[in-house]
């Protein structure tokens, strides 16, 4: 690098890049910050000068120019122990992270242990630290949607919102799987295998993924026995409790559709304890197709696959695409598919 452009130990500047490229400082600024209106051959000259000098944009200065922080908040209103024990969350975060990384954007993870954390989160979001937010695993009484609307924070949700939009409000943008359709396919599969007493272990009914899967079960088991439905909490322990409850009510049941794979593994453990053969006596189907859960189950779990990582990428893509746009993105529903293994 020419000595007149840089003193040893100094950080390269926009002026140094402009001098080496033979263009104005304003032209360099537009190229570095992704602006339009610069001719292609000048863009190439600036980029070559940036590479030669090892220029790294000043984040604070870039924020002033673009009014962007280059960061996105990911908010998960669940206890920390669940976030780090349920592989669903790691897959969704991985998808989000890969898309943000591909678009040179930082991920800031915000977790909610209790209701008191929302005041901290609102202060952080309102403080201009991030350009937008991605949130998933919300419950119907969650205050986050009202917080993001109040401060004008662009937000995309993972999962169909269970709250009501205001008058004239098109609703919050979201990405979700076809939970109801996937549940229907799972129950039809069990009936096609000759099962006649199909039970359902539902997830927490203040989350739309659980209610949609319950609705899908009821679409197929029309006018079914209400004693064949028990509510869990998307954890193995919750699935085990619900399975015991179902066996107490209806010991002759011959199939179970669980609203996620973790609850299905809890149900399998109880069936083993009680001496039932799976699938001989009772067939079991889950939902998610979390590989290290479904494939490692005993027996391997038939389940409904949703592309959790892909949905994370879509969430990030929708959010980044809508920044600065007057139109909110349209909701996206991704397909599901039944994966047949040994449990049903």
Structure overview:
The protein is α/β, with parallel strands linked by helices and 344 residues long. 43% of the residues lie in helices and 16% in strands. It contains 14 helices and twelve strands. It has helices spanning 14-21, 25-32, 40-53, 59-66, 80-83, 87-102, 117-126, 144-151, 179-192, 208-220, 236-249, 261-273, 291-294, 308-322, and strands at residues 71-76, 106-111, 132-136, 155-158, 174-177, 198-202, 229-231, 255-258, 283-288, 302-306, 332-334, 336-339. The protein has a six-stranded parallel sheet with strand order 2-1-3-4-5-11, with helices on both faces. The protein has a six-stranded mixed sheet with strand order 7-6-8-9-10-12, with helices on both faces. Strand 9, helix 13 (291-294) and strand 10 (302-306) form a beta-alpha-beta unit. Helix 2 packs across helix 3 (40-53). The longest helix has 16 residues, at 87-102. It is elongated, with a radius of gyration of 26 Å. It starts with 13 loop residues before the first helix and ends in a 5-residue tail after the last strand. The relative contact order is 0.12. The model has no long low-confidence stretch (mean pLDDT 88).
SSE layout and pairings?
Elements: H1 14-21, H2 25-32, H3 40-53, H4 59-66, E1 71-76, H5 80-83, H6 87-102, E2 106-111, H7 117-126, E3 132-136, H8 144-151, E4 155-158, E5 174-177, H9 179-192, E6 198-202, H10 208-220, E7 229-231, H11 236-249, E8 255-258, H12 261-273, E9 283-288, H13 291-294, E10 302-306, H14 308-322, E11 332-334, E12 336-339
Parallel strand pairs: 1-2, 1-3, 3-4, 4-5, 5-11, 6-7, 6-8, 8-9, 9-10
Antiparallel strand pairs: 10-12
Helix pairs in contact: 1-2, 1-3, 2-3, 6-14, 7-8, 9-10, 11-12
């Amino acid at each position: 690098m020419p000595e007149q452009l840089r003193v040893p130990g100094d950080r390269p500047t926009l002026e140094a890049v402009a001098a080496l490229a033979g263009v104005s400082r304003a032209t360099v600024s537009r190229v570095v910050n992704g602006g339009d209106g610069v001719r292609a051959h000048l863009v190439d000259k600036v980029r070559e000068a940036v590479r030669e000098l090892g220029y790294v944009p000043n984040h604070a200065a870039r924020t002033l120019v673009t009014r962007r922080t280059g960061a996105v908040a990911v908010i998960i209103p669940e206890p920390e122990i669940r976030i780090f024990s349920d592989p669903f969350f790691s897959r969704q975060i991985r998808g989000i992270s890969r898309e943000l990384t591909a678009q040179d954007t930082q991920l800031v993870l915000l977790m909610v242990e209790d209701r008191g954390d929302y005041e901290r989160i609102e202060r952080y979001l309102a403080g201009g630290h991030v350009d937008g937010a991605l949130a998933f695993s919300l419950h119907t009484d969650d205050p986050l949607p009202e917080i993001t609307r109040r401060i004008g924070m662009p937000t995309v949700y993972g999962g169909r919102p269970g709250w009501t939009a205001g008058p004239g409000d098109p609703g919050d943008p979201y990405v979700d799987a076809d939970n109801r359709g996937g549940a229907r396919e799972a129950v039809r599969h069990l009936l096609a295998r000759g099962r006649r007493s199909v039970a359902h272990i539902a997830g927490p009914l203040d989350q739309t993924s659980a209610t949609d899967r319950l609705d899908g079960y009821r679409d197929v088991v029309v006018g079914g026995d209400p004693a064949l439905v028990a509510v869990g909490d998307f954890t193995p322990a919750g699935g085990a409790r619900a399975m015991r409850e179902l066996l107490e009510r209806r010991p002759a049941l011959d199939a179970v559709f669980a609203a996620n794979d973790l609850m299905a593994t809890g149900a399998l453990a109880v069936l083993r304890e009680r001496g039932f053969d799976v699938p001989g006596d009772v067939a079991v189907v889950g939902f998610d197709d979390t590989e290290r859960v479904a494939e490692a189950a005993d027996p391997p779990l038939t389940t409904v696959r949703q592309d959790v990582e892909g949905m994370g990428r879509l969430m990030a893509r929708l959010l980044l695409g809508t920044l600065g746009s007057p139109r909110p993105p349209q909701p996206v529903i991704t397909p599901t598919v039944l994966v047949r293994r040994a449990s049903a």
